[in-house]
Amino acid sequence: MLRTDAGSIRGDVSDGDVDAQTSAGLIDLDVLGDFSRISAVSDAGSVHLTVPDDVYQVDAETSVGRTDVNVSTDPNAARVIVARSDVGNVTIDHLPG
């Protein structure tokens, strides 16, 4: 688990599931390898995830901001992405290539 009360969470994740939470700060993660579940939640700050090009079960929402999901979705997909922010944009993109 990656957690901070005040500060951003940024980086690359090579393999495995991710659980990232911050009370105040940006979450910006590039997920480069295989995973079953990603959860990225910020109370106040944007969430940006970049994942391999695949099909995902996505739960993405924000109370104040914009939600952009730019990956293929299927409610029955094996891989799950949860991306939420109370105040901030939520963006899910696929890795280039």
> Which quaternary structure do these chains form?
single chain
Numbering strands along the chain, what is their spatial order in the largest sheet?
1-3-5-10-7-9
Q: Helix proportion of residues, in percent?
A: under 10%
State which percent range the strand residues make up: over 45%
Terminal Cα span: 28 Å
Low-confidence stretches: none
Order of helices and strands: EEEEEEEEEEE
Structure description:
The protein has 97 residues and is mostly beta strands. The chain has one domain. The chain is built from no helices and eleven strands. The strands form two sheets. A six-stranded parallel sheet has the order 1-3-5-10-7-9, with no helix packed on it. A five-stranded parallel sheet has the order 2-4-6-11-8, with no helix packed on it.
Please summarize what this structure is.
The protein contains no helices and 11 strands. The protein has 97 residues and is mainly β.
List the helices and strands and how they pair.
Elements: E1 2-6, E2 9-13, E3 18-24, E4 27-31, E5 37-44, E6 47-51, E7 55-64, E8 67-69, E9 72-73, E10 80-87, E11 90-94
Parallel strand pairs: 1-3, 2-4, 3-5, 4-6, 5-10, 6-11, 7-9, 7-10, 8-11
Keywords:
11 strands; mainly beta; 97 residues; five-stranded parallel sheet; globular; single chain; six-stranded parallel sheet
